[in-house]
Amino acid sequence: MFDDSTMPGHLRESMARRKQIPDTEDRQEWKDLICSRCKGLCCRYITVEIDPPEDEEDLDNIRWYMIHRGISILVEDEKWYVKMDARCEHLLPNGRCAIYDSRPQACRDYDTENCDYRTVYEGRATAYREYTDFDRLRRSTKKRWAREAAKKRKRKRK
Fold it and tell me: Could you report the per-residue pLDDT of 52-83, keeping only the tens digit for each?
């Protein structure tokens, strides 16, 4: 769990009041604080967006991804991603970036609001579901399809 005892008082109070990231002037200080505690968690995998499955054939294609080591599926609302365990070659043993000043734009654009540090060390809930077991993913997807079909039938009756 995240220890905020070393956080400056005004940031701790700001976060406690809003239970979220501080606004405007406190935001950069907050980001700097979180980044100073970075463990490089986001540098240990990559994700690629895929189309959500619409039928059994699509599910079988996703199963093909999942039978490989180090692969899982992330689902966030209607967005689906293949997650591949793949440590960045520039990640140092202390979790820092060896090429920080010349890191790729994707790394520069990564926002601390979605930072893995916040979910792992602060206990913040993730916005996505991660599936490592294909049968669980299939059951969940089929339930979603059934709910969507029921909604369509209900709309047609109206």
Answer: 999 999 999 999 999 999 999 999 988 999 99
Could you tell me the two tokens for 97? 């970036």
Summarised one tens digit per residue, pLDDT across range 108-147 is 888 777 677 777 777 777 778 999 999 999 999 999 999 9
Burial-class residue 79 by CB neighbours within 10 Å (0-12, 13-18, 19+): middle
3-state helix, strand, coil in the chain (%, to 5): 50, 15, 35
Task: Return the exposure string of 115-135: e unless at least 16 CB atoms fall within 10 Å of the residue's CB, then b.
Answer: bbbbeebeebeeebeebeebe
For residue 4, give every residue at least 6 positions away whose Cβ sits within 8 Å of its Cβ, in sequence order, or none. Answer: 12, 15
Separation of alpha carbons 80 and 50, rounded Å: 5
Give the mean model confidence (pLDDT) for residues 37-49.
Answer: 90
Closest C-alpha among 50, 68, 46 to residue 59: 50
Number of other CB atoms surrounding residue 16 within 10 Å:
9
The span from the CA of 44 to the CA of 90, in Å, is: 10
- Paired residues of 81 in beta bridges: 49, 74
Confidence band of 27 (pLDDT split at 50, 70, 90): low
